[in-house]
Every structure is written in structure tokens, then in C-alpha cells.
């Protein structure tokens, strides 16, 4: 079943290649959506895909980018699930 998620990721997630990591891994899994840095140091992410794939993707987000695991740190991922909204065909990074 296709689902939509909205995540707010907190911790040391800016300046550690987190958005690139989120995009690469979403595209590998056929997940569409976007990711962007927030002014408070968190990262916002919206994604759509198969429910099981999204659950796997969230677990991967908890780990963060391999190259940055010694400096990156995910403290929380607040996730809101809903039905698919549609209208997205790729996974994009929004830059400041």
C-alpha cells in the first residue's frame, strides 16, 4: 500500500551530508519526495512510497550517512503517516 510520511529529524543532521544521504537512498528504493534543512538545525523530509519500503527507509535514516557516522547524530525522527498525496515524481533536495 502506498503511503505518505512527513518527518522532522533532530540531532546533528546539518553539515554532515544528511540530505544527500536521504536523497540517494530514497532514489535507490523508488521513494519520491523532498528533504530540506530547517533554521533550527533540524531536517524536514516528505516522502511517498510503499509502506514497507518507507519503514525500511526510516530505519536507514536513523543510521545516517556512513561517511559521517562519527559526527552525525540522529536524536529523534518524528513521523506522521497518511495516505498518498501524489504529485511528486522524484526525490529532491531543497537548498537554503
TrEMBL record:
<dbReference type="InterPro" id="IPR017968">
    <property type="entry name" value="Acylphosphatase_CS"/>
</dbReference>
<dbReference type="GO" id="GO:0003998">
    <property type="term" value="F:acylphosphatase activity"/>
</dbReference>
<feature type="domain" description="Acylphosphatase-like">
    <location>
        <begin position="4"/>
        <end position="95"/>
    </location>
</feature>
<dbReference type="Pfam" id="PF00708">
    <property type="entry name" value="Acylphosphatase"/>
</dbReference>
<feature type="active site">
    <location>
        <position position="19"/>
    </location>
</feature>
<keyword id="KW-0378">Hydrolase</keyword>
<protein>
    <recommendedName>
        <fullName>Acylphosphatase</fullName>
        <ecNumber>3.6.1.7</ecNumber>
    </recommendedName>
</protein>
<comment type="similarity">
    <text>Belongs to the acylphosphatase family.</text>
</comment>
<dbReference type="InterPro" id="IPR036046">
    <property type="entry name" value="Acylphosphatase-like_dom_sf"/>
</dbReference>
<feature type="active site">
    <location>
        <position position="37"/>
    </location>
</feature>
<dbReference type="InterPro" id="IPR020456">
    <property type="entry name" value="Acylphosphatase"/>
</dbReference>
<dbReference type="InterPro" id="IPR001792">
    <property type="entry name" value="Acylphosphatase-like_dom"/>
</dbReference>
Amino acid at each position: 500500500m502506498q503511503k505518505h510520511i512527513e518527518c522532522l529529524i533532530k540531532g546533528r543532521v546539518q553539515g554532515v551530508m544528511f540530505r544527500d544521504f536521504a536523497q540517494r537512498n530514497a532514489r535507490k528504493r523508488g521513494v519520491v519526495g523532498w528533504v530540506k534543512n530547517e533554521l533550527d538545525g533540524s531536517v524536514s523530509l516528505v516522502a511517498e512510497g510503499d509502506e514497507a519500503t518507507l519503514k525500511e527507509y526510516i530505519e536507514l535514516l536513523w543510521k545516517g550517512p556512513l561517511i559521517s557516522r562519527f559526527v552525525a547524530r540522529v536524536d529523534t525522527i518524528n513521523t506522521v503517516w497518511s495516505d498518498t498525496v501524489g504529485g511528486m515524481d522524484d526525490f529532491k533536495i531543497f537548498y537554503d
